Automatic annotation (TrEMBL):
Gene3D superfamilies for the chain: 3.30.420.40
Protein name (database record): Anhydro-N-acetylmuramic acid kinase
Pfam families xrefs: AnmK (PF03702)
InterPro entries noted in UniProt: Anhydro_N_Ac-Mur_kinase, ATPase_NBD
This protein's UniProt keywords: Kinase, Transferase
GO biological process, one term: amino sugar metabolic process
GO molecular-function terms, A-Z: ATP binding; kinase activity; phosphotransferase activity, alcohol group as acceptor
Highest taxon, organism lineage: Bacteria
C-alpha cells in the first residue's frame, strides 16, 4: 500500500479465516519502508509527467514493489503465501471522467516474486459509474463491524458507516496531504503530535473560506484526489506564517470531521491512519463531538488500509464481491482486481 501522504511503502502479511459466516484476521508481520528522496519526488511529480515517462514509471515502480516485497518475504522467512495484493500509488483520480490510475504494474511484482498478484482494484468501479473510492468499507463491514463508523486519517480523511442497513462511505477532507507539505517548509517530514499547529494561530477568515468549499456541501458518495487539491485548495493557501497555516488547516480538518460524526450521530468511531498520531488534531475532534473516539493498537493504526487491501485480494481470489456500490456509487456490488 502506498498512500497519497507518501509516508512510505506499507507491507502487511496477514492471515484470514472464515468460520462459515464471519471473517477474522491476524496481522503476522508488517513494515513501512520509507521512500528515498528520489522515489518520493518521482511519485509526487508523476502527475506532471509525459505519457512516455509515466508508462516507464509504472513499470519501474512495479519492479520496485516486487523487489521490496520479495525482500520482506525473505527477511521474515515467509513460506505460506497465497497471493499478493497491491494497491499501487495513485497518480490520477478523475472518476467523473471515468478514469483513475494507480501505478506499479502487477505483472512486474509477479516477475520479482513468482506469486499470484492481484492489483488495479479501483478502475473497474470507476467504469461502473462509481468513485473508485473509498474501497476499505468492505473490510470495515466484515472485519470491524463492532464500531458504528471507521475513520481513516491519511492523506485524505475518509469514513465508512452503516445507514439504513447499507454501508456508505466517502472522503471528508484533506489531512496529511496538506499538513505534511506545510511541515516540509519548516524542515520536518510531518507535524509531530501537531506541535507546530499548536504553536500557531488560527486564521478564522481563512478557515471560513476553506469550510465554504463546494465539496463539503455535496452528498455522498464522493471522493477527493490531488487534482482537487491543486484546483481548490492550493489557490486558497495564503502567504503567512507556516505555523498559522498548520493551525488553520488542522482546525479545518477537525471541523469537517466532527461535522460528519455529529450529522450521522455516530456513537463510537475507530480511528486509524498516520493522522491518529497527531494528538492536537485528535484533541480538536474530541472537543467538537460527543462521539466516543477509539484508538486501536499501533499495528491497526498504521496497517489497517494495507490489511483491507490484502483482504480484498482474498475476496477477489474467491470471486466474492470486494467493492460495495453503496460506498462508491457504482451500479452494483462487484469483485474487482486484475489477477496475474
Amino acid at each position: 500500500m502506498s498512500g497519497t501522504s507518501l509516508d512510505g511503502l506499507d507491507i502487511c502479511y496477514s492471515k484470514f479465516t472464515n468460520d462459515g459466516s464471519d471473517w477474522d484476521f491476524e496481522i503476522l508481520n508488517c513494515e513501512t519502508i520509507p521512500y528515498s528522496s528520489v522515489w518520493e519526488n518521482q511519485l509526487k511529480d508523476a502527475i506532471q509527467f509525459s505519457s512516455e515517462k509515466l508508462l516507464e514509471l509504472n513499470s519501474e515502480f512495479g519492479f520496485y514493489l516486487g523487489e521490496r516485497t520479495q525482500e520482506f518475504i525473505t527477511k521474515n522467512n515467509i513460506t505460506a503465501l497465497d497471493l499478493i495484493s497491491s494497491h499501487g500509488h495513485t497518480v490520477f483520480h478523475q472518476p467523473k471522467n471515468k478514469f483513475t490510475l494507480q501505478i506499479g504494474d502487477g505483472r512486474a511484482i509477479k516477475i520479482k516474486t513468482n506469486k499470484t498478484v492481484i492489483y488495479d482494484f479501483r478502475s473497474q468501479d470507476v467504469l461502473l459509474g462509481g468513485n473508485g473510492a473509498p474501497l476499505v468499507p468492505i473490510g470495515d463491514e466484515l472485519l470491524f463491524s463492532e464500531f458504528d463508523a471507521c475513520l481513516n486519517l491519511g492523506g485524505f480523511s475518509n469514513i465508512s458507516l452503516k445507514r439504513d442497513g447499507k454501508r456508505i462511505a466517502f472522503d471528508i477532507c484533506p489531512v496529511n496531504i496538506i499538513l505534511n507539505d506545510l511541515a516540509l517548509k519548516l524542515g520536518k517530514k510531518y507535524d509531530e503530535n501537531g506541535d507546530l499547529a499548536r504553536s500557531g494561530n488560527i486564521d478564522y477568515e481563512h478557515l471560513n473560506e476553506l469550510d465554504q468549499l463546494h465539496f463539503y456541501q455535496e452528498k455522498a458518495p464522493k471522493s477527493l484526489g490531488i487534482e482537487w487539491i491543486n484546483d481548490q485548495i492550493s489557490p486558497l493557501i495564503r502567504n503567512q506564517k507556516t505555523e498559522d497555516l498548520l493551525a488553520t488547516f488542522t482546525e479545518h480538518a477537525a471541523v469537517q470531521i466532527a461535522k460528519v460524526l455529529e450529522e450521522f450521530e455516530i456513537k463510537n468511531v475507530l480511528i486509524t491512519g498516520g493522522g491518529t498520531y497527531n494528538s492536537y488534531l485528535i484533541e480538536k475532534i474530541k472537543a467538537k463531538t460527543k462521539t466516543d473516539i477509539h484508538i486501536p493498537t499501533k499495528e491497526i493504526i498504521e496497517y489497517k488500509e494495507a490489511l483491507i487491501f490484502a483482504f480484498m485480494g482474498v475476496l477477489r481470489s474467491l470471486n466474492l464481491n470486494n467493492i460495495l456500490s453503496s460506498a462508491t456509487g457504482s451500479s452494483h456490488d462487484h469483485s474487482s482486481g486484475i489477477v496475474c
